[in-house]
Write a structure and sequence with these properties.
This protein is an alpha+beta fold and about 240 residues long. It has a single domain, classed as TolB, C-terminal domain (Neuraminidase, 6 Propeller), CATH 2.120.10. Helix content is about 20%, strand content about 40%. A four-stranded antiparallel β-sheet has the order 1-2-3-4, covered by helices on one side. A four-stranded antiparallel β-sheet has the order 5-6-7-8, with no helix packed on it. Strands 9-10-11-12 form a four-stranded antiparallel β-sheet, with no helix packed on it. Strand 13 and strand 14 form a beta hairpin. It starts with a helix and ends with a helix. About 35% of the residues are buried.
Length: about 240
Amino acid sequence: MERKSRCQTFSMMMERKSRCQTFSRESVHFADAVIEGSDGSIYFTDASMRFGLHEWHLDVLEAKPRGRLLKYDPQTWKTSNLLDNLAFTNGVALSPEQDFLVVCESWKYRCPEYWLTGKQMTEVFIDNLPGGPDNINLAPDGTFFIALIKLGLGGYKEFVHKPKLVKRVIAKSPALFHWIFNTRGKATVINVEIHGKIINYLDDSKGKVMSFATSATEFEDHLYLGNLNTSFIGKLRSQKAKK
């Protein structure tokens, strides 16, 4: 009986895995960020439908919106597409009341909001940011912390009309890409209130302490900063972060 039970469990797991991997559109190529709703729904981003984790810099060089916001329903085991044609969908967060989602659209320097109630419409939460929004996290006080990637030379907009030859040369070397855009030379985090207004701005413009910050999470009166360029996690008192 025990062996039969284990076999049945394994069979159900494999079936569930199969259902999670397929849905009405293309398979997930670059799963980036995820958040779970109180009803068990899983919301996650597919940053690029063409490039993977180690090729993310090629997405900005191509300058085409290939990102998506997806939802997995644990009751039906189905994944649905909520938003597409997004310019590198990165972080995602639920509002305090869980009535809308905020998603980071990195290469367009903005964060759309997708309403889960009513007509499920899409609006701009915040745009014209001083950098590409990477990850977003809800703070205990109902505000959001958003880490920004500071791309030099105009970032995404700079490469929309660049000749293909220039893009190909840069694409061959990730190190050249980082050197040109200076992505690892600074760190920026903003604190945004529920209506999309910036209420605080944290910046290490020369990267003396922290550089290439990709996330900011508040926990027990401290702000923890994740990054892709140093061997440590930054820690800052939240009173100082929100002064």
